[in-house]
Amino acid sequence: MQYPPFRIDRPQSRSTSVVFASPHSGRDYGLDFLRRTILDELGIRSSEDAFVDRLFDTAPEFGAPLIACHAPRAYVDLNRAADELDPAVIRGLRVLRHNPRVSSGLGVIPRVVAGGRAIYRGKLDRDEAQQRLDRIWHPYHDALQGLLDEARAEFGQAILIDCHSMPHEAVRAAPGREGQRPQVVLGDRFGAAAGSEIMARIETAFSSVGLRVARNAPFAGAFITQHYGRPAEGQHAIQVEIDRSLYMDEAQVRPNRSFPGFRGVLRGVIEEIAEIGRTKALPVAAE
Question: What is the distance, to the nearest Å, from the Cα of residue 270 to the centroid of all Cα atoms in its chain?
Fold first, then answer.
């Protein structure tokens, strides 16, 4: 796998407190990892937020940095805490407390991909798991917090847009009738991770281009939103989940014919979100 395990695309001149991030779009699987997995090439990619980094790669045009991981989610999941380790896939661990994500195989070193399909036959050594955290997880999160610290120092606040995609099946399972279900789900941990006015303006940025938007259902945000969302300290985090069927062939993991047009639509959304970060930091109302 290539090093560094992520890239930061910086604007020529940073003009907004917004930071865009794509932690799950990495597709550098590496020959060693592909030899270890019992899944085929498409199977191992089924948990990947494929092409999300490309959907948001115009962010620097509007004065905002984009950080995107090269390493795939199936190798190490950056949207999990570093201690969400799974004894069912890592040798020598004891179960210390119940964690539903770990129990389902979706810890920081995943045991399964979409559909509950096992990644490995057998277990990994604990040293190998720690190496993945040391080489990828910690550097990525150090760099992300660095970008947020820069924004707070320059603009008085930081707004993290954590960019993801969701399988169309997840959308079909959401409440509502076909044709009325959300195409975009924004998660702010039910108001705990971002100021209400910022959340409202980001929702408007998506809905104003004709996208159906929901909040916190079926996705309210996981580790990244919870960890970085500290609105009382001027640091806001919102998870964005986009229906994959809008821009890609999920079965073949490749862009569909709608990809260029949808990327153009998102370019306008990105511009509007970047504009939010050019306004003076807003006080956070007490709950």
Answer: 16
